[in-house]
Each structure stands twice: as C-alpha cells, then as structure tokens.
Automatic annotation (TrEMBL), chains A, B:
Pfam families the UniProt entry points to: TetR_C_16, TetR_N
Entry keyword annotation includes Lipid metabolism: no
Top-rank lineage group of the source organism: Bacteria
Domain HTH tetR-type: 15-75
Residue spans binding DNA: 38-57
Cross-referenced InterPro entries: Homeodomain-like_sf, HTH-type_TetR-like_transc_reg, HTH_TetR, Tet_transcr_reg_TetR-rel_C_sf, TetR_C_16
Family matches, as PROSITE patterns: HTH_TETR_2
Organism: Nocardioides bigeumensis
Keywords per UniProt: DNA-binding
Protein name per UniProt: TetR family transcriptional regulator
Coiled-coil boundaries: none
C-alpha cells in the first residue's frame, strides 16, 4: 500500500491524527473532567486506537498537559521548586511561576488557559484536572503534611494574583516588579505550605 | 393630561424608566468602565434627564452599586468592618463577607456578578468600578498607610477564595466551615492590611 491523499487522515503519525486526538482530549476533559475522561474514550472520539494515544502522548497526565496547549510543561517549571524541599519553596515557586507568566511569548497562551478554567462550560478543567495533575503532586513531592488542604490554599492565592495582575490588569499589581511580587506573596504561600493551620 | 398606555414609558416613576436607567448604566459601566461613565451619558442612553437619574439612584457610586444587581449593598456589609478600626479588621471582614456569600438566597446573584467581572467584555467592572467604589474606600476608611497598594492585595486573595470556594467548588474549601475559613485567611488579610510590606 502506498501513501496518498485518501489515506492521510488515518496515517498514525500524521499531524491531523495528533490534532484529532488533542481535540477529542480537550473536549472530553472540559465536559467530563479529568477523572471522568479515559484514554479509551479519547481514542474512540478521535477514531483511533488507545495504544496510539499512549504512543504519542504518554500517560493520561501527559495528555492532559498537552491538551492545555501551553508552550511550557508546568511540571518541568515546578521541578526546581520540588528539588529544594519545603523550606523556601514559596519563594522558589513564585520565581518559577512569574518567570513564565512574565514572558511575553508565553503569556497569551496562559491567559487563554486561565480564561478557559473560569468559563462555566469548561471550569472542571481546573478543579478536576489542573489541581490534581499539576498542583496536587507538588504538595506530595514537597512531603507536606495535609497537602490536600495546603495546595488548594496556595491555589486560592495564586489564582487571585493571576487574575488581578495578568487578566484584570489591576494596578499597582499589573506593573509591580517581579522581586516585589515575590517578597509580597512569599510569606502568604509559605504559611499555606508549611505554617500552622486551623 | 391623563395617564394612559401611550405615556407609560415616559412616566418618571414608572418601573420601566428605572429599568431603562439601570440597563443603560450596566451597559455603559461594562463597556466604558466606571470612570468613563457619566450620569449624563447614562441619562442620554436611557432617554431621560440627568436629574431623574440622581433623583432615583443618588450618586454615581450608588448607581454603580444598584447596577451590580445584588440583593445587598456591599458598602453596608462593610460598615461594621470599618467601625472597628484596622486592628482585627481582617477577621471582621471575612466574617461579614462569608455571611453574605454563605447565604443561599444571596449567593446566586453574587455568582452572576463574579462571573461578569471575569468576562473579557465586562471585566472593567471590577478593576475600574468595584475596586474604586467598594474596596478602595474601605482602605481609606480604615486609615491604612498605602491603601492603594494594600487593598488590591486583599482583593487578590479574596477573589481567589471566591473562585475556588464558590465558583469552582474546589474541596476542601467548598465545604470548609466558616470559622475555619476565617481562621485560615485572617492572618493573610491582616498582613496585607496593616503588616510590613516590601
């Protein structure tokens, strides 16, 4: 068999196959949530075999991060935060996080993801996806006590900071130098990570 | 002249005149922002005299709060926070704030406002409206130093808390008892209100 236009849509490595898988994954994660989405369902929706989804995208976590369609893998950004341990993790987290958001090449894509996570139709992507796949494991890797409480507290401050600084462009936050943002928010986040909590 | 169906739309006290003013105000605040909206422009858009707008709604601040269409005036809710002074203001603020958001009769309207403030087309309502009309004056009334810095910090945590607890329903925040939320977030907000800041 030779390749040709008629077969293009079914060729495993073809860009449109990858795109079809990503489209199906985005749609299912948004409507069914992370836990309600299976690789099998994504494969069926994309009209391919489940093994092909694993072959191109790895685990379900990897597929979820790929479906976010941001030019960075947040788990890689967070690796140095984890490597340093819980002590001082808030400051390292803020530095890593701001270096990505303050990059003008990356910010537009992040803004799209942030808006998606707040729209009623797709907001499950955050609570039932981004939180367990990206933020939750950070708390476990840092070996925190009560990570299931602490990481949502961290998220509640970081999400508000993103909204005011990057989405709503509220001053003086929107123009505040990185070092000042880090120094302002690090005590809050460090208390949420390792401080005494009720 | 006698009243009749043909005159109903122009009668000053008629419900549809009030509604027309509120519609015009909502549309203008959303698209022009608070500072870009004048009583004169609202009156013109509603087809009434400016004096009538003042007569029914008071000041521009009052009109803005009325246009939010929530069953409480946030400025009244915040009055006891101000009355107690800056010491302990974070705890009083959280108690006042949660009493409103945790009221099932009020929450749906607040959710609508919160969503409006995050939509791209209407997000100026927050940065150029809610913040200067409702949140900013709180910092001035509490006689804080640098209120123009401190109140956006407070807002950045409160907005994130609203999002995770009430909009995205992230656990354990969504089910957390009021007292625990207050005890968890009061130290953060009190530092933003009165603590040392970089």
């Amino acid at each position: 068999m030779t390749s040709g236009p008629a077969k293009r849509g079914r060729r495993p490595g073809a860009p449109d196959t990858r795109a079809a898988i990503l489209d199906a994954a985005r749609s299912l994660f948004a409507t069914q949530g992370y836990s309600g989405t299976t690789i099998r369902a994504v494969a069926a929706a994309a009209g391919v075999d489940g093994a092909l989804v694993h072959h191109y995208f790895g685990t379900k976590d990897d597929l979820f991060v790929a479906a976010l369609d941001i030019p960075v893998d947040p788990r890689q950004i967070l690796a140095p935060v984890v490597a340093g341990g819980a002590d001082g993790a808030a400051e390292r987290f803020l530095l890593a996080f701001l270096s990505v958001w303050d990059d003008p090449d990356v910010r537009p894509a992040l803004l799209t993801v942030a808006r998606t996570m707040m729209e009623p139709a797709t907001q499950r992507v955050f609570a039932d996806g981004f939180l367990p796949v990206v933020i939750g494991p950070l708390g476990v890797a840092l070996d925190l006590d009560r990570p299931e409480l602490r990481m949502p507290l961290v998220a509640s401050q970081v999400v508000g900071l993103i909204l005011l600084r990057y989405v709503l462009l509220v001053e003086p936050l929107a123009s505040m130098p990185t070092e000042q943002v880090v120094a302002t928010y690090a005590p809050t986040l460090q208390r949420y990570l390792t401080g005494p909590l009720p």
